[in-house]
Write a structure and sequence with these properties.
mainly beta; Thaumatin; five-stranded mixed β-sheet; 3 helices; 16 strands; about 30% strand; globular
Length: about 240
């Protein structure tokens, strides 16, 4: 049976769930940012969206629910002219993403739950699709290798000009794109000839993210060792703006 896999980002929208999650493992999303964020969840095909796929989370609050497989968080969301939209991580103008994915750039938390002989839950943080908020993942009451991982740095203030995403109302930097999103080349996107561990390489753009946050994935075939396996954790806590 395939293990459940999910992703979490500042938009907190991307969650994939391959199998039903056994009872007991809780995902807690914490918003330490000085503004509201809009987490979102995207399940694998054939599985219902948890928490209706997305919700608002006010500053200095948290929300707990049975662990899904992936999340990210949206920022700069508003209603205008009868439509809901977000500056980063938008999922087609929906508050409740209902299984739809979010737009890059967005910081992602990736999980593969309940696999192996010791009930492992694997987790990591990815900047492959860019960055919109600082994020860490902390397992609680697990056994074995259970480090805190993620990106605590605010990369919006140092994002290279070519990667910047600016939003209303005053053109502030709201996201930092990947090299792939900015330029779309096969080499930067690890497509076609470059879609293998042998030909997909780090670039100067992925190295910007890696230098600031070395324990994150920064390009498509980055080291698998960045995913950590923790045996039987009771809770996975995803913290934005730690």
């Amino acid at each position: 049976m395939a293990a459940p896999l999910f992703t979490l980002s500042l938009l907190l929208i991307l969650c994939t769930l391959a199998t039903a999650t056994p009872p007991g493992l809780i995902l807690t999303v914490v918003n330490n940012c000085p503004f509201t964020i809009w987490p979102a969840i995207q399940p694998n095909a054939g599985h219902p969206a948890l928490e209706r796929g997305g919700f608002a989370l006010s500053t200095l609050t948290h929300r707990s629910f049975p662990a899904p497989s992936g999340h990210w968080a949206r920022t700069g969301c508003s209603y205008a002219h009868g439509r809901f939209s977000c500056a980063t991580g938008d999922c087609g103008g929906r508050l409740e993403c209902d299984g739809h994915g979010g737009a890059a750039p967005a910081t992602l938390a990736q999980f593969s739950l309940h696999h192996g002989h010791a009930d492992f839950s694997s987790y990591g943080v990815s900047l492959v699709d860019g960055f919109n908020l600082p994020m860490t993942v902390t397992p609680h009451e697990g056994k074995g290798q259970c480090p805190v991982v993620g990106c605590r740095a605010d990369l919006l203030s140092t994002c290279p000009h070519a990667l910047q995403v600016r939003g209303p109302p005053h053109g502030a930097v709201v996201g930092c794109k990947s090299g792939c999103a900015a330029f779309g080349t096969d080499e930067l996107c690890c497509r076609n000839h470059y879609n293998s561990p042998q030909t997909c390489r780090a670039s100067s753009y992925s190295e910007f993210f890696k230098h600031a946050c070395p324990a994150t994935f920064t390009y498509a075939h980055d080291s698998p060792s960045l995913m950590h396996e923790c045996s039987a954790p009771r809770e996975l806590k995803v913290i934005f703006c730690h």
